[in-house]
Aspartate--tRNA(Asp/Asn) ligase (Vreelandella andesensis), 593 residues
Amino acid sequence: MRSHYCGQLNETLVEQTVTVCGWVHRRRDHGGVIFLDMRDRDGIAQFVVDPDTAEAFANADRARSEYVLRITGRVRLRPEGTQNPNMPTGMIEVLAKEVEVLNTAATPPFQLDEHNKVGEEVRLKHRYIDLRRPDMIEKLRLRSRISHNVRAYLENQGFLDIETPVLTRATPEGARDYLVPSRTHAGSFFALPQSPQLFKQLLMVAGFDRYYQIAKCFRDEDLRADRQPEFTQIDIEASFVEEDDIMSITEAMIRQLFQEVLSVELPDFPRMTWQEAMDRFGSDKPDLRIPLELTDVDDLMQQVDFKVFSGPASAEDGRVAALKVPGGAKLSRKEIDEYTKFVGIYGAKGLAWIKVNERAKGLDGLQSPIVKFMENVVEELLDRVGAEDGDIIFFGADKARIVNEAIGALRVKLGADLELYTQAWAPLWVVDFPMFEADDNGRLSPLHHPFTAPSCSPEALKSDPANALSRAYDMVLNGTELGGGSIRIHDQTMQSTVFEILGIGKEEAQEKFGFLLDALQYGAPPHGGLAFGLDRLVMLMAGAKTIREVIAFPKTQSAACLMTDAPGEVSADQLKDLNIRLRQKAKAETASE
């Protein structure tokens, strides 16, 4: 129906006849001559309709915003003084000969260029309108280019694109499963996969050697800016590899991706242990663009007569950390109070601080409600953090977990608020993760998943599981975890040892993971892999604030789709087929009886 997209029209087509199809972006009537800005996925172009072409003029006259038109006309240069060099099609216009109205349109719920004036709920309710915006089109176009580039790279590296089941069985992987009732097996349920983890390991046992998949994954968990109940994962697995092999392959893939899609040469990827990341930044995904670091001051605070500090400093699971902010003494008391409220979100009971006004004056040059409690260590403290005039020092004192989360998050917020970024892109690898993490009752759970290989023997793992390290690695970019992976357990003895430490008995292990344990008996090769969050990757590359901006049809923060009104009720007949009876309906039926 068309010869060109709107965005393809340029000076090379002058005097040629073209046919385009699209939506009316804007209509203007200038003294009997109608100007139509037409839009499609490639861009916007200007069309001029004269009264001389009666039928075309009549159709253009009745066209309104978002009408669907087909226009045929001659490309010509715009008159001097009306050209727009900032617009790809701004040097030309099309003198229309034929204008056909393919469909009318109701008044849209919002104008595309005024989308900021309506709430996100309105835009998600009418997502098909929101997706017409040029910036949304560009984000999804970018997503398509990223997916294509990833596929091409992995295919060139010998990886095979293999699909894995979406209907599978529930396995504990750290989040709640989405369950699907079975009609043919009454009382039984499928689960939507949180990841293709077990199947890709089985593919390695099957000998496929190098696998990848751009896979849909599902997790029923609380949402935030970079989470959705259904998300897309670039899943990669390979046999006969070690950590360096997977890290080298995937780092090269990301480097090529940024170079070819954004023309960006990423800097070096430093490697940092998990422990170093937590000590220096309070996070296992530190944003290295921010030149602020946490400094341990436990030894100093054990010497002060201030229990708020001395207590955590002396506790086995406690920590006192200082965060120096250069130039931060200019922060007002109101701003400090806001930061105090902010760290409270992460469980911090308060936020102590010291302003360094004139260090040469000793205690008189310091401003703080707590400095009187630490006179005996204050000079050593200032030396340790490298404090200078005009700085502020924030403190976190509590359980190490709370201090890391609260002061680590404060570091990121200060970096954004004070515009402290030193570079555009800051990638790194985080390695040597703990194998397990303990809850408040001391019960161990896998930090990643129970199929991650430890970096020690089964005997050593049994003797000291709390301090064991795993063969896991995460790629981090600008404070966002792009992807995580590990070398997997390929030995049945090691897998059974991990289950035993986690309190999973033989019967339970066989019930939940029997097919994997059985497969490990039949010559499983050493293997490992890594999974990237495609949505997060696109979000970063597009400069978007949330992954909802780079997903065509996302869910809300409450895991609902406003456009389709999902989730929704189903009919009684459907429930009957599935042998399901809703408790609320059962109560209502009982009451009526």
Observations:
- The longest strand covers residues 17-30.
- The radius of gyration is 30 Å.
- Residues 6-103 form a domain with the OB fold (Dihydrolipoamide Acetyltransferase, E2P) fold (CATH 2.40.50.140).
- The chain has 18 helices and 22 strands.
